[in-house]
Amino acid sequence: MEEVHATRTELLARKNQMALAKQGCELLKEKRDALLIEFMAIMNKVLEASRRLQEAARKSTYAMAVAKAVDGLATIRSAAMATKGEVTVEISGSYIMGVPVPEVKKKSVRRSALERGYSVTGVSSRIDEAAERYEQELDIILDMAATETKMRRLGEELQRTRRRVNALERVVIPALAEQVKYIQMALDERAREDLFRLKKVKKSLEAKKKAALQEG
Predict the structure, then answer these.
(1) pLDDT band at 105 (very low <50, low <70, confident <90, very high)
(2) Which structural domain, as residue segments, surrounds residue 128?
(3) How many beta carbons lie within 10 A of that of residue 14, not counting itself?
(4) Quick check: helix, strand or coil at residue 128?
(5) Which residues contact 67 (CB under 8 A, 6 or more apart)?
(6) What is the number of alpha carbons within 13 Å of residue 121 lying toward its C-beta?
(7) HSE-CB for 213 with a 13 A CA cutoff
(8) Of 61 and 78, the one with more pLDDT
(9) In which band, very low, low, confident or very high, does the pLDDT at 2 lie, cut at 50, 70 and 90?
């Protein structure tokens, strides 16, 4: 226990500190619970997006395998070299329970065969399908990037809040309670000693008074 002064002022100060610690602990618990609700909601979105990504990856891999088998790797590479485009992403910020999280706005990367840049007559429908499948996969990846970042930020804040709650509940508040108990016991003991001395002094005065009356 840290050194404390057994005074009524110190007792009042420690009680106030304990009351504030308890109030802060309750507020942090409310924040923790709210963060957990938000975290679970976003985690469900991530899990759903992950499932969609796995399915999209399976389809794009299959489409590419078919294109390679029928059209040949050289034809696919030629189409890939001719393909051009860009991914437009706007990143801004927002807050969830006071936690800064990114907001990503993007334009879909999915394009028509005419927009991809290669000759429409120079490639087969199989290459077109493979390109479309990979564009769908990239769309999902971009969507997941922001969502996973939100989940990570909320998870980090959730862990910090839990640690603060645990520190208050298991360390700070019990320590303050022990200090309050120690000061209260010291003050009570001092009060008993003062009362004992007062009784002793009173008894001594009464004895002196009685002796003086007898002599008189």
Answers:
(1) confident
(2) 32-162
(3) 21
(4) helix
(5) 76, 124, 126, 127, 129, 130
(6) 0
(7) 5
(8) 61
(9) low
Q: Note whether 76 and 129 are within 8 A (CB).
A: no
Average pLDDT over residues 57-65: 94
Measured in whole angstroms, how far is the alpha carbon of residue 30 from the centre of its chain? 13
Q: Is residue 52 part of a domain?
A: yes
DSSP annotation of 170 reads I
CB atoms within 10 A of CB 51: 11
Q: Is the pLDDT of residue 175 over 90?
A: yes
How many domains are contained in the chain? 1
**In this structure, what DSSP letter does residue 168 have?**
I
Give me the pLDDT at residue 196, please. Answer: 80
Phi, psi of 151, deg, nearest 5: -60, -40
Query: Whole-prediction pTM value?
Result: 0.71
Name which of 168, 194, 171, 150 is nearest 45 in CA terms.
150
**Residue at 209 is within a domain:** no
Please give the full DSSP string across 63-103, using - where no structure is assigned. HHHHHHHHH-HHHHHHHHHH------EEEEEEEETTEEEEE
Checking if the pLDDT of 93 tops 90, the result is: no
Return contacts of 154-157, CB within 8 angstroms, 24+ apart: 154/35, 154/38, 154/39, 154/42, 154/96, 154/97, 154/99, 154/101, 155/39, 157/35, 157/97, 157/99
Q: CATH number of the domain at 95, please.
A: 1.10.287.3240
* Other CB atoms within 10 Å distance of the CB of residue 184: 15
Between CA 33 and CA 37 the distance in angstroms is: 6
Work out the widest C-alpha separation in the chain, in whole angstroms: 138
